[in-house]
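Researcher: Final request for today, and then I'll write up notes for the group meeting. The sequence and the SMILES for nicotinamide-adenine-dinucleotide follow.
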Amino acid sequence: MARMDRSFEFARRAVSRIVVGTGVEARLPDLLRELGTGPIVLVHDRTMAAAADRLAARLGDASCLAIPPGEAAKDLDQIAAATRALRHLGADRGVTLLAFGGGSVTDAVGFLASVWLRGVRFVACPTTTLAICDAALGGKNGVDLDGRKNELGTIRQPDLVVGDTDWLRTLPDALWREGFVEVVKMAAVLDAAHFAELERLAPALRARDAAAAQRAIDLAIAMKMAVVLADETEQDRRRWLNFGHTIGHALESLANGALRHGECVAIGMLAECRAAGAAVPAAVQAQLTRVLQALDAPTAWPRQFGDVGRLWALAVQDKKAHAGVVPMVVPGAIGTGILCELTRDRLAAAV
Ligand SMILES: NC(=O)c1ccc[n+]([C@@H]2O[C@H](COP(=O)([O-])OP(=O)(O)OC[C@H]3O[C@@H](n4cnc5c(N)ncnc54)[C@H](O)[C@@H]3O)[C@@H](O)[C@H]2O)c1
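Model: Predicted protein-nicotinamide-adenine-dinucleotide complex:
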């Protein structure tokens, strides 16, 4: 007979502050002071070294730690190397890890901050549109093992997100539009009014207009954080944000670096609409295609990646796949996500 059988309920209070705008880098020292941070280790990818050094100088005595650029930053071996570097720097539980870079850096450092000494403060300073609109928000992080994307990860909200839109100026066009593809994705399944606004903003976004970019970023933060607050651990509503990613991730893996994440999501959204058949009206597909084209994002399926067998093998690796079916969310109307199922036959019809 059990001598002890009790349940313990934990109340976890996490506060995540997000500050985004032009020139906010100058406020970073004050924002960190308000947070009560101690020593800071600024982790950046190697190609961002000059900007990271300038930022470190502004922060006074931050130590800098360079990691490889792009997805390589998220390899578990690189996380192990960064862990040894933290040990070498004498980082203790009072340290704050500050990620300065794109989504690969914020994902990798968010993970590191959640496991180093069982968790230390984490500040994200996103420098790509994708990271500022999506990756740095909501606390999901992930690292890759044996080339399998995000196989390991935690959910841990950043204590502070600071995004200076001036950091985005050096982005090449292909990287610039990526984040806005994700904002279109959010609006397509969550909010018709925001989708209509993005339709109007698309030409200005393509022309890299600063006011349009700030507005799209504000919409992204509002939409993503509303979803995350309602469903932090992705039991329900947060899955809506995976629109375009079921087929998009499979395409990204198959393309093996030949296509960028945002390109695959744009192509993936339209392929998932086709795969959903009558559940997504033709007018919705046409509207989505128009906005993506206005952003100069690709919309047609790239014929060289039409191997359905390999695509399906990649799609069923999805964490949510069950019994040969992959659940996916598509817009039943603009602004309204509906759940449907991807099967091999539906995939074959869509690519
Ligand atoms: N956690 C999440 O919720 C979430 C959401 C979406 C994407 N992600 C992840 O984000 C990662 C992709 O992130 P990303 O697209 O931001 O790219 P990235 O971090 O891989 O960076 C891409 C390239 O851009 C360069 N770069 C970064 N900032 C720059 C700047 N201001 N000017 C010039 N070059 C700059 C980098 O050096 C790198 O070479 C993927 O691993 C993806 O899985 C995570």
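Model: The radius of gyration is 20 Å. The mean pLDDT is 94.
Researcher: Thanks, that's everything.
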